[in-house]
Design a protein that fits this description.
- The structure holds two protein chains of two kinds.
- By secondary structure, chain A is mainly alpha-helical.
- Helices cover 64% and strands 6% of the residues of chain A.
- Chain A is built from 17 helices and four strands.
- Chain A has a four-stranded mixed beta sheet, with helices on both faces.
- In chain A, strand 1, helix 3 and strand 2 form a beta-alpha-beta unit.
- The longest helix of chain A is centred in the middle third of the chain and has 31 residues.
- Chain B has twelve helices and 14 strands.
- In chain B, the strands form three sheets. Chain B has a six-stranded mixed beta sheet with strand order 6-7-8-3-9-10, sandwiched between helices.
- The C terminus of chain B is likely disordered.
- Chains A and B meet through helix 1 and helix 10 of A and helix 2 and helix 3 of B.
- The structure holds adenosine-5'-diphosphate (ADP) and magnesium ion.
- The site of magnesium ion has 5 residues of chain B, from helix 1.
């Protein structure tokens, strides 16, 4: 009977309403997440401190320095510090003050002119893989183009040039995080509603009084899922709008695709709510939820393609992404927000999310224990 | 005992691993009866009530409640009973009214019927004024009364209460008792209650089963149970310098039914303590003993419990509590 189902839903919503702190945190946390993630884990590196020791008065060393300064002024990857003492520069790298030290020896220009294997020293803070790699590549390019002053005026028409063609409106790094942040909001919402309230009731000993009533397993599970769904989709939609505003994605893009967007958010929420029910359906202590939440977040979120493209994953992780509902949700949200895909364009993702929900929800109802 | 049976239990058993919490218990409760299970902590009362109310599956035997087998048709049983578990189970984040209203909806009761019924129940338990306050602001006694009222919303014919007054102050306890008495008179309900307070069993229940270590050790009306032990009163004499023949000498007196010496205290079963006390004192003095103290009390279910188990319900309590208090070091109480 529906009266029972709605009673379970209403009880849960009432209790949620009485705890405004939970609501405030559910909204604030994903937004803070966007800001922190966007600033700490950026697509590009900037302001890496690099010590430069130039001992060569010749023209080629000057060229290299100019190229480096151009990078410093442009993409701001480096922040260059001119020094005279080679030993001091290397020591600085060893102590972690500089990400690299560049040493141009006194005879560098001479050797270039004589083609006598000119060399520049590059000391890298190699344990910091990402910055070392970036600096090596950029520095290699700076050396290669040091002869560009002598390039003939007339361009070499035979040389191939790359021209970027953006198929879609430009997406900056911040904007590309928006689908991930929405998924994060959904994840947090499903973790603090639905089965969590059951675990809490069990922990407080209140569950007993509900098991004594004629409520069926289906009433209890689907009622909790439904109230978790309404809370979580509400929060996720709000987070979507807020993060679009923060990152400057035109809201018209969401408005134009409101149906597929809503469908993806609802289904992703249902997937995670039922998944949590399967995992935590028999937990008796909220601490178990706490312990598992960090773990679940890492194994679902990072392989979702929200931060790194799934195409670059190793094979086994790609296989995992194939059954990870967050990966389908991220894929669908990206398609809708950045490639203007309609319902048809994300039908594959939606089909997966729907099947995943049906299977896990059925399983969690069947696995629900109606006795103590 | 009335004709039809509200509860029929046969050889019901529940094991938790090697422990048998309820051991082949059989009994019947007639419709309209107020039936109680009296026993110390850990006797198996909660386990038994949970099996009868479908929360635990028996590992042996069976029980038929309101005409349905608890293990095979739990849903049918749940529709017909109201249960107040031992622990407080009302929702602190909800108001008293909301707690009751949601409960009514869990039983499929429609809005119109609910409203009136809840109002009158809240009135009956004296919570009408506090109906719209959060339960978090209620006292223990108020919360318990709300929980009893809550399981009456769907008008069950059979009510189960697991230690309904545990942890309540004496005044709240009496309020709950009065309310339960009203229920059995007015609504002709059947009530099944467990308790470890003999006063509760004695004043409320028409029939009592005494349970210890998972087994029923005696069953009957409080009067019948007390009739099962000799005499009507118990005179307890603490005697200093008691001779070895004193017990025998006291037992030889014509009005003494039985004498039980325990650590210098003689528990003497007689028909009238007040009338027999002087003669008893004379007998002690004649044997050269000195009276340190004398008490006379009417036999209670407590004495019935002692009679069958050799220990007191209260002692059981005290011993158990002392293990907690002493954090592993048992300390002697009293
Ligand atoms: N879920 C359980 N698992 C293991 N032992 C239990 C469980 N529930 C109760 N017991 C044990 O069964 C015995 C009876 O407990 P219980 O029915 O709660 O007694 P009472 O309600 O009379 O105090 C106790 O020894 C208790 O420790
Ligand atoms: Mg108990």
């Amino acid at each position: 009977m529906m009266i029972r189902f709605f009673a379970v839903v209403e009880r849960d919503l009432l209790k949620f309403k009485r705890n405004p702190v939970v609501l405030a945190m559910s909204i604030l946390m994903p937004v803070i997440y966007l800001v922190i993630l966007g600033n700490s884990f950026q697509g590009k590196l900037t302001d890496l401190p690099v010590a430069v020791v130039n001992q060569d008065p010749g023209p080629y060393a000057k060229r290299i320095l100019e190229n480096l300064r151009a990078i410093q002024a442009g993409p701001r990857t480096f922040s260059l510090l001119g020094m005279s003492d080679q030993g001091e520069a290397v020591k600085g790298v060893k102590e972690g003050r500089y990400k690299a030290a560049i040493i141009i020896p006194p005879d560098f220009s001479k050797r270039v002119a004589l083609s006598a294997r000119p060399e520049v020293g590059l000391f890298l803070d190699n344990p910091d893989n990402i910055s070392a790699e970036t600096i090596r590549n950029l520095f290699g390019a700076a050396i290669l183009s040091m002869r560009s002053e002598y390039v003939p005026i007339r361009e070499n028409a035979g040389e191939a040039h790359l021209r970027d063609i953006n198929l879609f409106p430009k997406v900056d790094y911040y904007q590309s995080l928006v689908p991930g942040v929405v998924i994060m909001a959904i994840f947090l919402g499903t973790l603090t509603t639905g089965v969590f309230n059951l675990v809490m009731d069990r922990f407080l000993g209140i569950e007993e009084s509900y098991l004594l009533t004629p409520l069926t397993r289906a009433h209890i599970v689907s009622g909790l899922v439904a109230s978790g769904l309404s809370i979580t989709t509400g929060i996720a939609s709000l987070i979507l709008v807020v993060s679009m505003l923060i990152t400057g994605i035109p809201l018209s893009r969401a408005l134009g695709q409101i149906l597929p967007l809503f469908l993806v958010i609802v289904l992703a929420t249902l997937c995670l709510l039922s998944l949590m029910f399967v995992i935590l359906g028999r937990a008796g202590h909220p601490r178990i939820v706490g312990v598992l939440s960090g773990f679940l977040n890492v194994i679902l979120f990072f392989p979702s393609g929200a931060v790194y493209p799934i195409a670059s994953f190793p094979g086994w992780l790609k296989a995992f992404a194939k059954i990870n509902p967050e990966a389908y949700a991220v894929d669908a949200l990206k398609a809708i927000l950045f490639r203007n895909a309609g319902l048809a364009g994300v039908s594959g993702d939606i089909a997966f999310l729907a099947v995943f929900t049906a299977v896990t929800l059925t399983f969690s109802i069947l696995a629900f224990k109606r006795t103590l | 005992m009335q004709g039809t049976r509200a509860i029929a239990v046969s050889e019901i058993t529940r094991k938790f691993g090697p422990l048998t919490a309820v051991d082949r218990v059989s009994f019947d409760v007639g419709e309209g009866e107020f039936f109680g299970f009296l026993g110390p902590n850990g006797a198996g009362k909660t386990t038994l009530i949970r099996m009868l109310t479908t929360l635990l599956v028996p590992t042996g035997g069976n029980a038929v409640v309101s005409g349905w087998d608890v293990a095979r048709e739990p849903a049918e049983v749940r529709k017909r009973i109201g249960v107040v578990p031992q622990a407080m189970t009302s929702d602190l984040d909800l108001t008293g009214y909301e707690n009751m209203d949601l409960y009514g909806r869990f039983y499929g009761i429609h809005a119109r019927d609910r409203k009136e019924r809840i109002r009158s129940l809240l009135d009956m338990v004296g919570l009408a004024q506090r109906a719209n306050d959060l339960v978090a602001t209620y006292s223990g006694g108020m919360r318990r009364r709300l929980e009893i009222a809550r399981v009456l919303v769907h008008r069950p014919a059979l009510l189960f209460l697991d230690e309904p007054t545990i942890g309540l102050d004496p005044q709240s306890r009496h309020v709950v008792w009065d309310f339960l008495r009203k229920l059995i008179e007015g609504d002709s309900m059947t009530i099944f209650l467990t308790t470890h307070y003999m006063e509760e069993a004695e004043t409320l229940c028409g029939r009592v089963a005494i349970i210890d270590a998972g087994k029923i050790i005696a069953m009957g009306s409080p009067a019948e149970l007390k009739a099962g032990i000799p005499g009507k009163d118990i005179v307890s004499l603490a005697v200093g310098n008691a001779s070895t023949e004193l017990a025998e000498a006291l037992g030889g007196l014509p009005f003494v039914h039985e004498v039980r010496p325990e650590d210098g205290v003689f528990r003497i079963f007689v028909d009238s303590g007040a009338r027999n006390l002087p003669a008893l004192i004379d007998a002690v003095r004649a044997s050269g003993g000195a009276i340190l103290s004398a008490t006379v009390h009417e036999q209670s279910l407590e004495d019935v419990f002692i009679h069958y188990t050799g220990k007191s319900i209260r002692e059981e309590e005290a011993r158990k509590v002392s293990f907690f208090v002493g954090a592993g070091v048992p300390q002697k109480l009293g």
